[in-house]
């Protein structure tokens, strides 16, 4: 996870805006290590306007409040 995404995610958690069931999407992300706290899924696709460059969007679902 790029550092800017992680700091933004930490700010959202600290503000109390994220609760169980929240979904967070990240572009150009590989993984998030938070076992038991979140579930992640990587949706792979081609980079926009490209037929052969791979990209992806990670979906992070909160299983419980941070």
Strand content: 25-35%
Show unreliable segments. none
Please report the total strand number as a whole number. 3
* Neighbour order of strands in the largest sheet: 1-3-2
Give the terminus-to-terminus CA distance: 18 Å
Taking the sheet with the most strands, its summary is:
3 strands, antiparallel
Tell me roughly what share of residues is in helical segments: 10-25%
Structural class: alpha+beta
Mean pLDDT: 77
Alpha carbon gyration radius = 13 Å
Shape: elongated
The H/E string reads HEEE
Helix segment count?
A: 1
Description:
With 66 residues, this protein is an alpha+beta fold. Strands 1-3-2 form a three-stranded antiparallel β-sheet, with no helix packed on it.
TL;DR?
Helix content is 20%, strand content 35%.
Q: How do the helices and strands line up, and which of them pair or pack?
A:
Layout: H1 3-15, E1 23-27, E2 38-46, E3 54-62
Antiparallel strand pairs: 1-3, 2-3
């Amino acid at each position: 996870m790029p550092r800017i995404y992680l700091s933004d995610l930490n700010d959202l958690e600290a503000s109390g805006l994220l609760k169980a069931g929240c979904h967070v999407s990240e572009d150009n992300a590989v993984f998030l290590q938070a076992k038991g706290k979140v579930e992640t899924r990587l949706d792979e696709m081609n980079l926009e306007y490209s037929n052969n460059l791979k990209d992806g969007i990670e979906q992070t679902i909160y299983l419980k409040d941070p």
